[in-house]
Amino acid sequence: MKRFKLFAIALLCLISLSIYSQENKKEITGEEWDKLIQLLSTEKWNDAEKLSLKYLNKFNDKDDSLADPAIVRYMYIRCVAAKLGNKVYDKDEAVKKVAKYIGKPIITPPRTFNQECMFNCIRLTEDKKCMYSCSANDLHTVIHDFERYEMADTTFLDDVSAIEGKDIRIAAFVKTIEAGGFTMPRLEIVFDKTFVWDEGEEEDDDGE
User: Fold this and answer.
1) Contact in structure between 169 and 71 (CB atoms under 8 Å)
2) How deeply is 113 buried, as exposed, middle or buried, from its count of CB atoms within 10 A (0-12, 13-18, 19+)?
3) pTM, rounded to two decimals
4) Residue 147's closest CA among 131, 159, 163?
5) Using CA atoms, how far apart are residues 165 and 113, in angstroms rounded to an integer?
6) What tens digit of pLDDT does each residue of 111-123 get?
7) What's CA 125's distance to the chain center, in Å?
8) Looking at the predicted structure, is the pLDDT value of residue 17 above 50?
């Protein structure tokens, strides 16, 4: 478990770094987060895409090290992926919308690590060299994207029993984004420099 702590500390140092003074600090309010999460949870992808892009426009390139844009950036990419899966966008249009985020950091919402799970969870790839996720709608009838996570420290994957069945969050950088599939189009995303941490362990450490 100590590896989780090291990863979390390194990650928090990365996303907390900011050269802005407190009065100039940009952030997304709790009310704004609630509004976006509600749209995502009810799969209102069009409205969620517009709102997440609005939030992203609060920030500029110098804000890449902050947590808020990293979280919303992932949400925006997922919205575009969902609209591609639903054939609202064609493959070229979808890739064009998200290509500008290649090289930028993302942070995922909590998702369960489960080697037996197929959709909307995290598991190891077949070669056990990376983490992998297949994102889909709640009914699992429309695939949105395939996500491959290349680790910052590959030894982390030597024993993942400690996180089996637990909710984890992932921080990484977007490495490549392509579109694949014909009958069921989807985004195919590769992330690198991936860090993982167990939110439940953080809560336990705080005594909650």
Assistant:
1) no
2) buried
3) 0.85
4) 131
5) 5
6) 999 999 999 999 9
7) 17
8) no
> pLDDT tens digits, residue range 47-78?
999 999 999 999 987 787 789 999 999 999 99
* Cα separation, 176 vs 198, whole angstroms: 26
3-state secondary structure of 52: helix
> What are the angstrom distances between the C-alpha of 20 and each of 23, 26, 28, 195?
8, 9, 15, 25
Q: Give, in degrees to the nearest 5, the angle at Cα 51 between 122 and 67.
A: 55
- CA 167, chain centre distance (Å): 13
Q: Is 11 helix (H, G, I), strand (E, B) or coil?
A: helix
User: Treating both helix axes as pointing N-terminal to C-terminal, what angle do 2-16 and 67-85 enclose, rounded to 10 degrees?
Assistant: 100
Q: How far is CA 133 from CA 1, 122, 146, 190, in A?
A: 22, 5, 6, 11
- The single-letter code of the amino acid at 76 is Y
